[in-house]
Amino acid sequence: MTSLQKTKRISWVSIILWMLRILVIVLVIWGATVTLTSGKYAASSWISLTIAGLAQGSIYALIALGYSLVYGILLMINFAHGEVYMAGAFVSYFVADALEQSGFLAAQPLITIFILLLTAMATSTVVALILERVAYRRLQNAPRMVSLITAIGASFFLQYTFRGLFGSGFKAYPEFGVMWGRWTFGSVTVQVVQIVVAVAALLMMGGLYWFVEKTKTGKSMRAVSEDKEIASLMGIDVNRVIVITFILGGMLAGAAGVFRGLYQPQGIGYNMGFLPGLKAFSAAVLGGIGNIPGAMLGGIFLGVVESLGPNLVLQGLGIVGANQLKDAIAIVMLVLVLIFRPQGILGEKLSEEKA
Amino acid sequence: MTTSIITPVVLNRKTASKTMMIGIYSGLVALFVCLIGMVETFGERDIIGGIISMGHTMLIIITMGGGAFAVNKLRENIYVSTQKERQVPLLAGILVGMATGLIVGAMLAFFVFAAELVDMRSVLINVSPGLLEMLTLQKPASQVTLTIIILGALLGGLGASIFHIPPRIRVPLVVGLSSVVSLGMLRDMVRIVLSREGWPSLLLSFLVQNQGLSIAGAITIFIIAIVLAIIWPYLPAMYDKAVWIVVTYVPRVVQLLGCILFAITLAMRIFWFIAINDKDLPLLPSCQTTDNYSDVGLSQCMSILSKDVSTTTDRLGTNFATLVSSIITVSEMLVAAGIVLSVIFVLWQMWQHTKSTRTNSTFEDLDKALILITKRKISTFFGITLLVSLPILLGVYPSEVLVNVGLYMLMGFGLNIVVGMAGLLDLGYVAFFAVGAYSTALLTSPRASLELGMSFWTALPLVILITGATGLLVGAPVLRMRGDYLAIVTLGFGEIARFVFLSDWFKPWLGGAQGIIKIPPISIGNIQFIGPHRLYYLVIVGCLIALFISARLRGSRVGRAWMAMSEDEQVAETMGINTVYYKLLAFGLGAMIASISGAIFAAKLGTIFPHSFNVLVSITALSLLIVGGIGSLPGIIVGALVLVGLPELLREFTEYRLLIYGAVLVFMMLARPEGLIPRVRRTRKLDAQELSQDAWLHDETDIKNDSGVALAS
User: Fold this and answer.
1) What is the mean pLDDT of residues B83-91?
2) Do A148 and B484 touch (CB under 8 A)?
3) C or N: which end of chain B has fewer Cβ atoms within 10 Å?
4) Last residue of a domain, which of B164, B179, B195?
5) Residue of B481, B507, B665 with shortest CB distance to A152
6) pLDDT tens, A247-282?
7) B307 and B438 belong to one structural domain
8) Shortest CB distance from B665 goes to which of A13, A149, A163?
9) Rounded distance, CA B701 to CA B713, Å?
10) Which of the four pLDDT bands, split at 50, 70 and 90, describes residue B305?
11) What is the set of domains in chain A, with CATH numbers?
């Protein structure tokens, strides 16, 4: 009797899930067909949108890597990572502003960007390290809920610290003349900054991949993520590896902050990290959390979907003001991925302990 | 003798470096509160008028705390050989404290100096001339550098010496100082309450000056607090004695009659307060001046209730009228005394509660049991009195604060079902609050798209059902996820709800950014619940219902299933608990309670905007749950009072509310994950027989320790 009930219940759930799956696919296809057949946009504008999505997505990917790295090692969601990114963007804004006023920026834009990257990476790294030292180190063996709540608390503490220190107004990055040129290939026009951001981010991700796969420290990181205790028995200093992980995550987040400033100069403020943080987490889960290429892929995928989605699908479904719902796409995708493929696009099936 | 031996042990290189680190940390904290603008904002609020402000108090506390902390750390590190207690020698302790304070002072002095040389305002917006003036006490920086450093050292030393004062003196001193500080902080509140009718006006002018407390007032408060702190330990025994006297010598009939008289008078007063008067009631009755409007005693209420009182009294003669009026006066005085007593009593009970460790007392005789039962009755009696009479006591503005506290408390109870009982971390709880508010608005407002214009009470069941269904809808797809994923996804849902309410897509129905206006107030009969002193009673009723539901659920089959599920889901499932069902139940119930809060919120404001429903609401609800102790019902009440009530009373706090919440979350998780008032878990006591069966598992020593400590809990 009980087993019968059990099977019945499971079948109900799976029927609903299947219906949901079909509904999502039908909605997407329907919306896309309606938009495409209406011929509202030319092919070139789709390509422009895709490239814009790539640039935005590579910023997400850089942040997502921070989530993924920390998750891989500590099995915790570092919710405050969005604030690490915010810190980099915020502090580098002040440097950029000072450099602009001294005229250095106009004279040497590339060196300026380099300086900005260094400052932002340093700031973010420091913030990430403080987080690790003050909050997370003592919670390594705590229940997940405890460390998540700590991370949320730390996130709000950081946001409002920055608000208290630097004010609640939104700031704008100075204009980089070089970045705002346009390149035209045939009928497709792209902004220089999009290409620069995407390429630079890809280079950094490549660097990270090389670091994790080829160096000795990277090897110890992988070992710790496999099994902390065994790794420490093998003579690996686990705390050192964790610190390095936070440094790497912080550096990438800081760089993402500068890229965000270059790509979208407006809206540098104390709460700029919240939504990108949430989206980057979605991206990390999308690609398979704990998986480095997965986070990259997830980020870029999310960026492209976010850029194309409102115009392609939502408008086709007849939704007014589709671009307002842009921010909801990431979360909906997160929910869908967690329902249908919790291990993400690239993730392997993890054991209950890790998943 | 011991001093000379220990001093070199204490003051070595390790101590020096440790002291320095603590000094630097305290200095950083001091600088931090300066830089984020707390010191300056709080500087506008004087504790004692014209003498010391809250900002200064903050810096003083940080410096003294640094000194005390350094000594405390030192004490932990002392090698104990012969001493009974680890005690740092007085001189060494003060030296360490002074060094700590010196570093704090030096850092502040350096900061003042640097800020005077370089203009930092373009980056750090809070380094204003006002802040510098506060730090330098309106003198040029070069003159006061040394003063600041010396002051820091003195304060640090003072903080360090706290441990050397014997507890008998230390405790009253600390209590006295902190009550002066807290009353000074709450001077607005003190002023509002004391300036109401009924309090002698002299009291206000004596206690409160223009900016803060007056000097004489501060000294008086200090002395009263010290006296209270000294007699405090003797109070429980005195109380027991008093209860015993009442139980033994006052006949039951008199007790009962007194209670009934009290209850009737109070009920009439409250009814009058809600139904008829829009103005505040005076605290103390003034029955003698009947024609004055401000007289709001029972007699007026009586005459309104039964128009023919006067004719009756005419018929029965003046003697009876005098009798009635004297009874009324007596009962009014009784009510006033009861209210004042219950304030004191409930505060005392709360204090006792935080200290008490639940002992399984075995009654030696019947008297003790009788006293215990009577005490419980008295607690309930005074508790209800206080609860009911708070708006009368405090006035409109504090009632408004209480209403907000109550709304959050209601959400806390709902969230507690989801987080505390079922163990599902929901960070998007605001979504249900918002759905409740919006559906109320849609159903009741004649200006909303549906143009239904229902009454609140018709709409409420529908609202609860709608929100419960939303809870199920949101819960169904996400419940198979693991805990921390669930948290993030619900956070996302909370954000999605806001996007939806804000979007142009639903604008024809939900009003977009303009929200929904003209939501009618709640009314029962002719009484419209406008104004906090009336809404208060509604919110209280809501909270009591939620409290009752939560308390009953906890021990029930459902509650036990939730508890099992939150401990270990797989084991619970194996034991035959249908986890999907129970999770959905938790989500739905939690959503329903939030919707009540949202409905009252919508009716209270009359207009709702999507911006009221941001993630900060969820975080506030979560924080109050965690501060109080996850799963603990008294904890929710205390958490809501502290986290929602205090910031509203101290307007300067509102800017730093989220900063403090964040810090509190981190701190609680690191230092005290079970919360201020941890939930009491009922565990079965092992019988001696069972214990002996398990004896082979332990050593003898283990049993000795365990049976005393572990099992008694």
Assistant:
1) 66
2) yes
3) N
4) B164
5) B665
6) 999 999 999 998 888 888 887 888 888 888 888 988
7) no
8) A149
9) 19
10) very low
11) 44-340 (1.10.3470)
